[in-house]
Design goal:
Blueprint (H helix, E strand, L loop, with lengths): L2 E3 L2 E3 L11 H15 L3 E7 L2 E6 L13 E2 L6 E2 L2 H13 L2
Antiparallel strand pairs: 1-2, 3-4, 5-6
Length: about 90
């Protein structure tokens, strides 16, 4: 079972009955990426290294943060609580 973390895939072959070949590892990685829902364009082999070309996320996969803008001075924040506290400063003078 490979472990995917950041840009590294760790595969523990300590309990394997034989040392896996690069093609064995390639099929394991392909299956694991598919099960994890990771989309990629291709996997290429360069010596003992596997290089995975991942896909760029589509626009519908990107989530834009909600921005709150002060109508009085143009102050911008992603925090709704900070936005309301800022507005109180305009109305109550804190």
């Amino acid at each position: 079972m490979p472990v995917i973390k950041d840009n590294v895939i760790m595969l523990d072959d300590g309990l394997a009955s034989h040392k896996p070949t690069i093609h064995d590892i390639l099929s394991i990685i392909e299956d694991s990426l598919t099960k994890a829902g990771v989309s990629y364009d291709r996997i290429s082999v360069k010596g003992a290294e596997l290089i995975i070309d991942d896909r760029k996320p589509s626009k519908k996969m990107l989530i834009e943060p909600k921005l709150f803008t002060c109508p009085h001075c143009g102050f911008v924040t992603v925090s709704e609580e900070e936005y309301w506290n800022h507005l109180k400063c305009h109305y109550f003078g804190f």
